[in-house]
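Entry 14. Two folds queued back to back today. First construct below, sequence then structure tokens.
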Amino acid sequence: MHHENLVHLPTGGRRSSPKFRETLALSDEFQGLPENVTHFDILKLVKRVGRELGMTERMIQLLEYYLLFTRDQDWSANARPIVYQSLYKTARDFGVGERQIQKLEQTLFEIGALTWQDSGNHKRYGMRDEDSGDILFAYGVDLSPLASLYPLLLQKYEEKQIRDAAWMDTKRQISGTRARIRALITELPAEEQEKAHTHYLTIAYSIRAHMSLESLRELLGKHMEMRETLQQRLSESARAEDNHVQKTYIYTSKDASLGAHKYSTKNTPSDKSDTCSHEDISFQESVAAGLEGK
């Protein structure tokens, strides 16, 4: 009779995976934080740009909760920042079930922010030296992989600062362009102002903090386009007015010239005969006749 030797592998506990092995390797290679960097610096970065790495508000809260359990010496070389508080106690502090805490931890693990140092029965416990405060042994949530995220967190924060500055600059440009548009509308002919104002209201909505830089730049483009359209319209109107004034001046000048010509007389040399009166002429004739008689 043939008998098969069956090997029963242990079941239960945490499953091994490439990601799990990767985070354990990061934990083994942990040599402390960079010089002049503390775990509180990492916490600040997590709170400012953690969302850009896929962290939710609840995940950030849990990570902050765990970070506050650690001490400076836990983040030095030859140490590990392991939080060994029981899962039950953590769940109680958050007012949720243990399963929900495990889900949050799993997502943080997938991001690369933590791993686990498990005991044989997967209970979380540990002990610190009463004098130095150093961890003597601990099983629980290992935060050392978070140190490897520091360069990425810092990069995201610097990018966010640049983006925030560009966001504020774009917002200021929109505000200034809006003031200019409103002023230009008042220069339009009365019959065109209402239509222009109605169009302006379609882009003059409130700017909210949640709006992206891309959407803000698109909104600025619409404002710039309307401003240019209004300026062009007013320039055309000004040119038309100039042409009208110029033509009116030409016609008025011609009329004045024609009138002056109509009422002018041609000057001829005078022999002063036209300046003598009738009596003077008769006297001159009688004197001439008397002289001839002599």
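Second construct, same run, same settings:
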Amino acid sequence: MRRHQAAIAAGVDPAALVEVINAAQAAREAVQATLATVGRTDALTDAEVYAMVDSLGDVGATLKGGAPDDLTRLYESLRLQLRYEPQEQAVYVSASPRVVSERVRGRTCTLFTRRSLNR
């Protein structure tokens, strides 16, 4: 707003700024509407998280045993995705576990992490 006031003070026709101000206001309202819905996701309860973990079986033994078929099943059940960014030398990991459980009906929660390869 101060920029617009300064422009008017410098001699810019105020009518020329109306469209710019209206567009900025519309963009601001759109962002505010989006932000109002961002925090409204359903959080998982402790019981739902435990149910998700329990449904995966013994993850530690599967990882330690390292049998390719077992690892494939685990990664598929986690819907594990890896994305390597060479410029950043980083791997982005996301997991969206699918769980067949009455306690987790209808909810999903994708987990994200970033692993930097620079140590």
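Quick look at the second one. DSSP finds five helices and three strands in the chain. The beta strands are 81-85, 90-95, 111-116.
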